[in-house]
Amino acid sequence: MTQSITHACGTLRPILRVGLIGCGEIAQVAHIPNLNHMSDKFVTTYLCDVSQQALLHCAAKVSQGPPKTTRDAEVLCSSDEVDVVVIASADAFHVPHAILALKYDKYCLLEKPAALNYRDIDALIKAESSSKGKVFVGYMRRYSLAFLEAVKEVKEMQDIRYARVRDIIGPNSDFVDQSGTFPRRFDDISMEDINDLNERKEDIIDQALTKEFGVDATPFSKLILILLGGLGSHDLSAMRELLGMPKSCLAASFAPPGIWTALFQYDGFPVIYESGFNSIPTFDCCIEVLSDDKTVRINYETPYIKGLPITLTIRERVEGSFGSSGFQERVIRPTYEDAYNLEFDAFYECVLSREIPKTTVADARSDIDLYAMIFKASHAKATC
């Protein structure tokens, strides 16, 4: 570890040296700026990407001084100048890059999805079992304070009647272009690297859909699996922490070009899940849980514009004067810190204490159970 800093409480705490794999949009818009802001806890010392232009662009964005760069992820993971690894590479490389970090006994923050099929997630779990490092899966919405407050509220609710999970958003570019981070895409990637990526994606998707879920691997089903692993994993992971795993998926529907719904059955209540994309530049994202006398709702905003509110809204029945009844509504914004900062805070504490993170690989495996439920319910409907 690099130098330590004495914090206000008088505690001497180390600064962790970060190796970042993947210099694409999420690294440019979120990870590098947040690591720069959290310079009392992190310093970016190494970058890895297959694009030399992306490496040069992102190296200039690191505020603590130019990091080393490489096109070889193992060089970064094995470096004595890297304490922890942040993996923001293409989804198809999440597992192999995390396994490399574990090979060198390093904690890594792995962007979601951890994996899209059981074969790969189980390989990652096996690699972690023989390493001194751990994998912290990047479900940042689950680290927002509004979400953590909602978990407490829902645990106290009696007789939940219904819940809904909604995440329908406009084009990411509409938010990213206004983020003030000026991300760039580069085209200096070799055909060998492009072919490698495409072959890995096809293998991962075929393994999931055909061999594990037992559904046809059509262009549309492939797209839906990618979207479930991307946008969907945020919502489904949060749903699991808030409500647990459903007993079954009663029905699912996919509407081209990118809207999908699923009806989950819990013990005593249903949950409707609706997600997808349209062309309206809005971020319509919430989780809402209803009982007879209370409603708990988490409202998420786009993470690409720093500081937008994640709020908790609670509605409860109240008894008024002269026997009348009404309700009270509380809107709670516990902090101005965004979810990425809070996620990195939790990651930092995890590494220092050598603890097992909340969002483990084993936890992420349950998302694949949900993907399988959704696809099988949709397939059953289509073949009726």
From TrEMBL:
Q: Please tell me one Gene Ontology term that the record gives under cellular component.
A: cytoplasm
Record GO terms (molecular function): nucleotide binding; oxidoreductase activity
InterPro entries on file: Gfo/Idh/MocA-like_OxRdtase_N, NAD(P)-bd_dom_sf
- Please name the GO terms of the biological process aspect recorded for this protein, alphabetically: NADPH regeneration
Q: What is the lineage of its organism?
A: Eukaryota, Fungi, Dikarya, Ascomycota, Pezizomycotina
Q: Which domain of life is it from?
A: Eukaryota
Which Pfam families does this entry report, sorted A to Z?
GFO_IDH_MocA
Q: Under which name does UniProt file this protein?
A: Gfo/Idh/MocA-like oxidoreductase N-terminal domain-containing protein
